[in-house]
Amino acid sequence: MPRHFGIIGYPLVHSFSPAYFKKKFATLGIDAVYEPYPIAAVDAFPALLANHPGIEGLNVTIPYKESIIPFLDEMDGTALEIGAVNCISITDGKTKGYNTDVTGFELSLIPLLAHQHTQALILGSGGSSRAVAYVLKQLGIAFQKVSRYIQDSCLTYDELTPAIIEQHKLIVNTTPTGQYPDTHHAPPIPYDGIGPHHLLYDLVYNPDETLFLLRGKERGAVIKNGFEMLQLQADASWQIWTNQPTV
User: Which of 34, 52, 53, 174 has the lowest CB atom count within 10 Å?
Assistant: First the structure.
C-alpha cells in the first residue's frame, strides 16, 4: 500500500507541492502519493482526517497557516513561537504542527545577503510573514511589516515613501499579489526608492518574475522568487515525515 501525504488550503488549483512530490517519489522510487485537499473552511480539517485515516503528513498553505493551530494536538517549538504552521505530521492519529517555511526562506536568503542588508520591509502580515520575520530576527536584520490594514507595529502602504524604501535595502513580499493569473498587479510601494543595492525577494514563484520583481530589476536590484524556498521547505517537510535526511 502506498503512503499518503497531501496539502490543505483553499484554493489549491496552482499549488506547487503535488507535482513536486510526485516527481520526487518517482525519482526516488518511493511508493507514496501526495494529494491536494482543498477545504473551503478550516473547521473541515477534522472531517478530512476522519475520512482519510492513512494520511501521514500534510502541508498547509493559504489561508490556514494560522487558523489550523487550534485543531492540532501538539506544536513544535519554532512553529509555536512563530504562530504559523505549514507542515503537519500525523502519527497514530495525533497531529503535530511545524514550520518549514523558516528553513526554506533562511537557506535561500543567506547566499544573497550583503553588508547593506541590515533593514528590511516585510510586505504582508499573514502566516508567511511570521516565518520571514522569525528568520530576519535570527539573522539580526531589523524589519518593519507593511499591511493594507492599520495594525499595531505595521506601516500601511499609504505611509511608505521613497525615503523609507531607500532605507530598507531588503524587501520581502509575503502576499500573493502578482501570482498567476493576476500577474499584472504588484504591491503598491514607491518603486522609485529602489536602487542597485536593494534585494527584492518574492515568496511568489509563478510567474518566475512577478511585476514586483520586474520593477525592482529595472532599477538594478537583485531579485529572487520563491521557487527555491518552496523546494527547500518541501524537503524539510519530507524529513519531518520520514525522520530521514532530505534528498
Answer: 53
